[in-house]
Amino acid sequence: MMVLGKKKIEKGDIFFGIFIYAFVIGVCVLTLYPFLYILSISLSNTGSVTRNEVFLLPKGFNLAAFQTVLSYKGIMVAYGNTIFYTVVGTILSLLLTTLAAYPLSRQDWKFRNIATVFLVITLWFGGGIIPFYLVMKNLHLLDTRLSILLYAAISTFYIIIVRSYFESLPKELEESAKIDGANDLRIFIQIILPLSKPVLAAIGLYYAIGKWNSFFWEMILINNEKLLPVQAVLVRIIRDSSFDREMEKALVQNAAVLPITIQYAAIIVTSLPIIAIYPFLQKYFVKGVMIGAVKS
What we know:
It contains 15 helices and no strands. By secondary structure, the protein is mostly helical. It is found in: Cell membrane.
Protein backbone atom coordinates (compact mmCIF):
# COMPACT_ATOMS: atom_id res chain seq x y z
CA MET A 1 0.00 0.00 0.00
CA MET A 2 2.79 2.39 0.82
CA VAL A 3 4.48 1.56 -2.47
CA LEU A 4 1.25 2.13 -4.33
CA GLY A 5 0.72 5.32 -2.42
CA LYS A 6 4.21 6.41 -3.26
CA LYS A 7 3.62 5.72 -6.95
CA LYS A 8 0.42 7.73 -6.85
CA ILE A 9 2.23 10.65 -5.27
CA GLU A 10 4.98 10.48 -7.88
CA LYS A 11 2.45 10.41 -10.73
CA GLY A 12 0.66 13.36 -9.20
CA ASP A 13 3.92 15.28 -8.99
CA ILE A 14 4.66 14.47 -12.64
CA PHE A 15 1.27 15.66 -13.83
CA PHE A 16 1.53 18.78 -11.68
CA GLY A 17 4.99 19.49 -13.11
CA ILE A 18 3.69 19.04 -16.66
CA PHE A 19 0.80 21.39 -15.93
CA ILE A 20 3.12 24.05 -14.49
CA TYR A 21 5.51 23.86 -17.42
CA ALA A 22 2.65 23.96 -19.92
CA PHE A 23 1.10 26.92 -18.15
CA VAL A 24 4.40 28.85 -18.06
CA ILE A 25 5.07 28.08 -21.75
CA GLY A 26 1.55 29.24 -22.62
CA VAL A 27 2.02 32.49 -20.73
CA CYS A 28 5.38 33.05 -22.45
CA VAL A 29 3.80 32.46 -25.87
CA LEU A 30 0.93 34.84 -25.16
CA THR A 31 3.40 37.44 -23.89
CA LEU A 32 5.99 37.17 -26.65
CA TYR A 33 3.73 36.64 -29.65
CA PRO A 34 2.42 40.25 -29.89
CA PHE A 35 5.99 41.58 -29.82
CA LEU A 36 7.12 39.00 -32.41
CA TYR A 37 4.11 39.83 -34.61
CA ILE A 38 4.86 43.56 -34.46
CA LEU A 39 8.51 42.88 -35.33
CA SER A 40 7.50 40.62 -38.23
CA ILE A 41 5.09 43.20 -39.67
CA SER A 42 7.70 45.95 -39.46
CA LEU A 43 10.25 43.79 -41.34
CA SER A 44 7.93 42.27 -43.96
CA ASN A 45 7.48 43.51 -47.50
CA THR A 46 4.50 45.68 -48.36
CA GLY A 47 2.65 43.08 -50.42
CA SER A 48 2.64 40.46 -47.68
CA VAL A 49 1.40 42.95 -45.12
CA THR A 50 -1.35 44.20 -47.43
CA ARG A 51 -2.55 40.63 -48.10
CA ASN A 52 -2.45 39.78 -44.36
CA GLU A 53 0.03 36.95 -44.93
CA VAL A 54 2.18 37.71 -41.88
CA PHE A 55 1.29 35.67 -38.80
CA LEU A 56 4.50 34.63 -37.08
CA LEU A 57 7.70 35.22 -39.05
CA PRO A 58 8.45 38.06 -41.52
CA LYS A 59 7.52 37.59 -45.16
CA GLY A 60 10.45 38.93 -47.11
CA PHE A 61 12.79 41.49 -45.60
CA ASN A 62 12.19 45.22 -45.69
CA LEU A 63 13.90 47.86 -43.53
CA ALA A 64 12.15 50.82 -45.17
CA ALA A 65 9.86 51.37 -42.19
CA PHE A 66 12.80 51.59 -39.78
CA GLN A 67 14.66 53.90 -42.16
CA THR A 68 11.59 56.14 -42.36
CA VAL A 69 11.20 56.28 -38.58
CA LEU A 70 14.88 56.91 -37.89
CA SER A 71 15.14 59.53 -40.63
CA TYR A 72 12.47 61.71 -39.03
CA LYS A 73 14.24 64.79 -37.72
CA GLY A 74 12.41 64.82 -34.40
CA ILE A 75 12.90 61.20 -33.39
CA MET A 76 16.51 61.59 -32.25
CA VAL A 77 15.64 64.70 -30.24
CA ALA A 78 12.76 62.81 -28.64
CA TYR A 79 15.07 59.89 -27.92
CA GLY A 80 17.53 62.21 -26.22
CA ASN A 81 14.71 63.71 -24.14
CA THR A 82 13.51 60.27 -23.09
CA ILE A 83 16.99 59.17 -22.07
CA PHE A 84 17.39 62.35 -20.04
CA TYR A 85 14.00 61.98 -18.33
CA THR A 86 14.63 58.29 -17.63
CA VAL A 87 18.19 58.53 -16.30
CA VAL A 88 17.86 61.76 -14.32
CA GLY A 89 14.32 60.95 -13.24
CA THR A 90 15.26 57.48 -12.00
CA ILE A 91 18.22 58.82 -10.01
CA LEU A 92 16.01 61.53 -8.49
CA SER A 93 13.26 59.02 -7.69
CA LEU A 94 15.68 56.60 -6.01
CA LEU A 95 17.19 59.44 -3.99
CA LEU A 96 13.83 60.70 -2.76
CA THR A 97 12.50 57.17 -2.15
CA THR A 98 15.46 56.12 0.00
CA LEU A 99 15.46 59.43 1.89
CA ALA A 100 11.78 58.93 2.68
CA ALA A 101 12.07 55.23 3.50
CA TYR A 102 15.05 55.45 5.85
CA PRO A 103 13.45 57.56 8.63
CA LEU A 104 10.25 55.51 8.32
CA SER A 105 12.28 52.38 9.04
CA ARG A 106 13.68 53.82 12.30
CA GLN A 107 11.65 52.51 15.24
CA ASP A 108 12.83 55.35 17.49
CA TRP A 109 11.49 58.17 15.27
CA LYS A 110 8.47 59.56 17.11
CA PHE A 111 6.69 60.82 13.96
CA ARG A 112 7.03 57.48 12.19
CA ASN A 113 3.40 56.37 12.50
CA ILE A 114 1.97 59.78 11.57
CA ALA A 115 4.21 60.06 8.49
CA THR A 116 3.29 56.52 7.42
CA VAL A 117 -0.44 57.32 7.64
CA PHE A 118 -0.04 60.44 5.50
CA LEU A 119 1.91 58.46 2.91
CA VAL A 120 -0.51 55.54 2.79
CA ILE A 121 -3.49 57.88 2.28
CA THR A 122 -2.02 58.88 -1.09
CA LEU A 123 -2.39 55.28 -2.29
CA TRP A 124 -6.18 55.69 -2.32
CA PHE A 125 -6.76 59.42 -2.72
CA GLY A 126 -5.29 61.89 -5.18
CA GLY A 127 -5.85 65.48 -6.18
CA GLY A 128 -6.94 64.76 -9.75
CA ILE A 129 -5.69 65.86 -13.14
CA ILE A 130 -7.03 69.44 -13.21
CA PRO A 131 -5.86 70.47 -9.70
CA PHE A 132 -2.43 68.99 -10.38
CA TYR A 133 -2.23 70.84 -13.70
CA LEU A 134 -3.16 74.11 -11.98
CA VAL A 135 -0.50 73.53 -9.34
CA MET A 136 2.14 73.02 -12.03
CA LYS A 137 0.89 76.10 -13.86
CA ASN A 138 1.01 78.29 -10.74
CA LEU A 139 4.55 77.08 -10.07
CA HIS A 140 5.48 78.12 -13.65
CA LEU A 141 6.66 74.60 -14.44
CA LEU A 142 4.69 74.08 -17.66
CA ASP A 143 6.86 73.52 -20.73
CA THR A 144 9.92 72.73 -18.60
CA ARG A 145 11.96 69.58 -18.13
CA LEU A 146 11.58 69.98 -14.38
CA SER A 147 7.84 69.35 -14.62
CA ILE A 148 8.47 65.93 -16.17
CA LEU A 149 11.03 65.06 -13.51
CA LEU A 150 8.82 66.12 -10.61
CA TYR A 151 5.32 64.93 -11.50
CA ALA A 152 6.24 61.26 -10.90
CA ALA A 153 9.35 61.70 -8.79
CA ILE A 154 8.25 59.38 -6.00
CA SER A 155 5.93 56.41 -5.42
CA THR A 156 4.40 55.60 -2.05
CA PHE A 157 4.27 51.90 -2.87
CA TYR A 158 8.02 51.81 -3.56
CA ILE A 159 8.70 53.75 -0.37
CA ILE A 160 6.91 51.03 1.61
CA ILE A 161 8.93 48.30 -0.13
CA VAL A 162 12.25 50.03 0.49
CA ARG A 163 11.28 50.81 4.10
CA SER A 164 10.50 47.14 4.68
CA TYR A 165 13.87 46.19 3.21
CA PHE A 166 15.67 48.64 5.49
CA GLU A 167 13.83 47.14 8.46
CA SER A 168 15.03 43.66 7.50
CA LEU A 169 18.71 44.65 7.74
CA PRO A 170 20.53 43.60 10.96
CA LYS A 171 20.21 46.27 13.62
CA GLU A 172 23.62 45.27 15.01
CA LEU A 173 25.32 46.96 12.04
CA GLU A 174 23.77 50.31 12.90
CA GLU A 175 24.45 49.91 16.62
CA SER A 176 28.12 49.10 16.06
CA ALA A 177 28.47 52.06 13.70
CA LYS A 178 26.99 54.39 16.33
CA ILE A 179 29.43 53.05 18.91
CA ASP A 180 32.23 54.01 16.52
CA GLY A 181 30.82 57.54 16.34
CA ALA A 182 28.98 57.44 13.02
CA ASN A 183 25.94 59.68 12.64
CA ASP A 184 22.70 58.78 10.84
CA LEU A 185 23.81 60.29 7.52
CA ARG A 186 27.04 58.32 7.50
CA ILE A 187 25.23 55.11 8.46
CA PHE A 188 22.73 55.70 5.66
CA ILE A 189 25.37 56.34 2.97
CA GLN A 190 28.11 53.90 3.98
CA ILE A 191 26.12 51.00 5.45
CA ILE A 192 22.44 51.02 4.49
CA LEU A 193 22.73 51.94 0.80
CA PRO A 194 25.54 49.48 -0.08
CA LEU A 195 23.54 46.65 1.52
CA SER A 196 20.40 47.69 -0.36
CA LYS A 197 21.67 47.18 -3.92
CA PRO A 198 19.17 44.37 -4.73
CA VAL A 199 16.06 46.32 -3.80
CA LEU A 200 17.41 49.56 -5.28
CA ALA A 201 18.18 47.80 -8.57
CA ALA A 202 14.68 46.31 -8.72
CA ILE A 203 12.89 49.53 -7.76
CA GLY A 204 15.17 51.53 -10.04
CA LEU A 205 14.23 49.37 -13.01
CA TYR A 206 10.53 49.78 -12.20
CA TYR A 207 11.01 53.54 -12.05
CA ALA A 208 12.98 53.53 -15.31
CA ILE A 209 10.35 51.48 -17.16
CA GLY A 210 7.59 53.76 -15.94
CA LYS A 211 9.44 56.89 -17.00
CA TRP A 212 10.47 55.44 -20.36
CA ASN A 213 6.89 54.42 -21.22
CA SER A 214 5.20 57.54 -19.84
CA PHE A 215 3.49 59.88 -22.29
CA PHE A 216 0.16 61.07 -20.82
CA TRP A 217 1.41 63.77 -18.47
CA GLU A 218 4.18 64.70 -20.90
CA MET A 219 1.58 65.58 -23.53
CA ILE A 220 -0.40 67.60 -20.97
CA LEU A 221 2.48 69.49 -19.38
CA ILE A 222 4.63 70.02 -22.49
CA ASN A 223 3.66 71.96 -25.62
CA ASN A 224 7.16 72.50 -26.91
CA GLU A 225 7.87 69.64 -29.33
CA LYS A 226 11.60 69.90 -28.63
CA LEU A 227 10.95 68.73 -25.05
CA LEU A 228 8.63 65.81 -25.83
CA PRO A 229 9.82 62.24 -25.13
CA VAL A 230 9.83 59.52 -27.76
CA GLN A 231 6.65 57.91 -26.40
CA ALA A 232 4.72 61.09 -27.14
CA VAL A 233 6.01 60.92 -30.71
CA LEU A 234 4.92 57.28 -30.82
CA VAL A 235 1.40 58.32 -29.81
CA ARG A 236 1.33 60.70 -32.75
CA ILE A 237 2.46 57.94 -35.08
CA ILE A 238 -0.22 55.51 -33.92
CA ARG A 239 -2.92 58.18 -33.80
CA ASP A 240 -2.19 59.88 -37.11
CA SER A 241 -0.46 57.01 -38.98
CA SER A 242 2.18 59.58 -39.90
CA PHE A 243 4.36 62.14 -38.22
CA ASP A 244 3.52 65.29 -40.13
CA ARG A 245 3.62 66.67 -43.67
CA GLU A 246 7.24 65.62 -43.96
CA MET A 247 6.32 62.05 -43.13
CA GLU A 248 3.31 62.09 -45.45
CA LYS A 249 5.61 63.19 -48.25
CA ALA A 250 7.95 60.30 -47.46
CA LEU A 251 5.03 57.87 -47.56
CA VAL A 252 4.02 59.05 -51.00
CA GLN A 253 7.56 58.84 -52.34
CA ASN A 254 8.35 55.46 -50.78
CA ALA A 255 5.95 52.76 -51.96
CA ALA A 256 7.71 50.19 -49.74
CA VAL A 257 6.32 51.81 -46.58
CA LEU A 258 2.84 51.48 -45.14
CA PRO A 259 1.41 53.45 -42.22
CA ILE A 260 1.02 50.26 -40.17
CA THR A 261 4.64 49.23 -40.78
CA ILE A 262 5.76 52.69 -39.62
CA GLN A 263 3.65 52.34 -36.48
CA TYR A 264 5.08 48.93 -35.65
CA ALA A 265 8.63 49.95 -36.48
CA ALA A 266 8.26 52.92 -34.14
CA ILE A 267 7.02 50.59 -31.38
CA ILE A 268 10.08 48.38 -31.82
CA VAL A 269 12.46 51.35 -31.87
CA THR A 270 11.02 52.81 -28.68
CA SER A 271 10.78 49.48 -26.82
CA LEU A 272 14.13 47.82 -27.49
CA PRO A 273 16.36 49.95 -25.22
CA ILE A 274 14.39 49.35 -22.04
CA ILE A 275 13.99 45.64 -22.92
CA ALA A 276 17.76 45.35 -23.39
CA ILE A 277 18.41 46.66 -19.87
CA TYR A 278 16.22 44.08 -18.13
CA PRO A 279 18.54 41.01 -18.41
CA PHE A 280 21.35 42.86 -16.64
CA LEU A 281 19.15 43.60 -13.62
CA GLN A 282 17.03 40.44 -13.63
CA LYS A 283 19.12 38.75 -10.91
CA TYR A 284 18.16 41.53 -8.47
CA PHE A 285 14.43 41.31 -9.17
CA VAL A 286 13.22 38.41 -7.05
CA LYS A 287 15.68 39.01 -4.21
CA GLY A 288 15.12 42.75 -4.06
CA VAL A 289 11.34 42.80 -4.24
CA MET A 290 10.65 39.69 -2.14
CA ILE A 291 12.98 40.66 0.71
CA GLY A 292 11.49 44.13 0.80
CA ALA A 293 7.97 42.73 0.87
CA VAL A 294 8.36 40.08 3.57
CA LYS A 295 8.20 42.48 6.48
CA SER A 296 5.69 45.29 6.71
